[in-house]
């Protein structure tokens, strides 16, 4: 089960609407859904709150150390509450996925994402969960400015259509996070990676099962 959910981004109002802050957007949406309020925890170098997701105790965290130093915040909270990497979910933007796409995976490389690189160094492992929100990629990379173009891209706000697609992905993930937190990884992946028709069927099936369970418990 997941005990710590971390959204990556950069602190400061000037970064609020940039593509690189997709992880922050998700944490804000999840906190709102659970009725929790994030506040500054200096010990953890970030905004954090202890809340309940799917009936489970979970910490939500937004590092205030800037993207490239995200690991300091993550490891501070994880070590304090003895949360192992396998129970940590990092939510972040992903250049290699189109806006609106979502991928859930465990372990692997950083894909060039500096926040993920730093977290892996601080945790001394890459074996933690990642929920990746696609933000797209610059259409053309002109050497030698390719790396700078990527940096400029992630630090710019997405276009209206892209933001709508990302917001839709976040909404879908707010349902899937309940499955992820409970450890129902296969179900969550099926939901996140499937077509809208299959997602609707899965939600209907899950809702019907929950209702039937409640009725059985009251008889």
TrEMBL record:
GO terms for molecular function: hydrolase activity. It is found in: Cytoplasm. Pfam families: Pept_tRNA_hydro. The active site is at 20 (proton acceptor). CDD domains: PTH (cd00462). The record marks 93 as: Stabilizes the basic form of H active site to accept a proton. The record marks 10 as: Discriminates between blocked and unblocked aminoacyl-tRNA. SUPFAM superfamilies: Peptidyl-tRNA hydrolase-like. Signal peptide: none annotated. It catalyses: an N-acyl-L-alpha-aminoacyl-tRNA + H2O = an N-acyl-L-amino acid + a tRNA + H(+). It is an enzyme of class 3 (hydrolase). Monomer. Hydrolyzes ribosome-free peptidyl-tRNAs (with 1 or more amino acids incorporated), which drop off the ribosome during protein synthesis, or as a result of ribosome stalling. Catalyzes the release of premature peptidyl moieties from peptidyl-tRNA molecules trapped in stalled 50S ribosomal subunits, and thus maintains levels of free tRNAs and 50S ribosomes. Belongs to the PTH family. This is Peptidyl-tRNA hydrolase. The lineage of its organism: Bacteria, Pseudomonadati, Pseudomonadota, Betaproteobacteria, Burkholderiales.
């Amino acid at each position: 089960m997941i005990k710590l959910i971390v959204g990556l981004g950069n602190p400061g109002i000037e970064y609020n609407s940039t593509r690189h802050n997709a992880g922050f957007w998700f944490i804000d949406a999840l906190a709102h859904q659970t009725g929790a309020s994030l506040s500054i925890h200096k010990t953890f170098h970030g905004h954090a709150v202890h809340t309940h997701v799917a009936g489970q105790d979970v910490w939500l965290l937004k590092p205030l150390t800037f993207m490239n130093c995200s690991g300091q915040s993550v490891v501070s909270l994880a070590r304090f509450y003895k949360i192992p990497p396998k129970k940590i979910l990092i939510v972040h933007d992903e250049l290699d996925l189109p806006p609106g796409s979502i991928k859930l995976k465990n372990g692997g490389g950083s894909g060039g994402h500096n926040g993920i690189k730093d977290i892996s160094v601080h945790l001394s492992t890459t074996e933690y969960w990642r929920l990746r929100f696609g933000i797209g990629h610059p259409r053309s990379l002109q050497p030698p400015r390719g790396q700078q173009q990527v940096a400029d891209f992630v630090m710019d706000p997405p276009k209206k259509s892209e933001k709508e697609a990302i917001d839709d992905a976040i909404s879908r993930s707010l349902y899937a996070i309940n499955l992820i937190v409970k450890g129902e990884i296969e179900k969550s992946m099926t939901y996140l990676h499937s077509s809208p028709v299959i997602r609707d069927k899965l939600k209907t099936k899950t809702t019907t099962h929950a209702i039937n369970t409640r009725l059985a418990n009251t008889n």
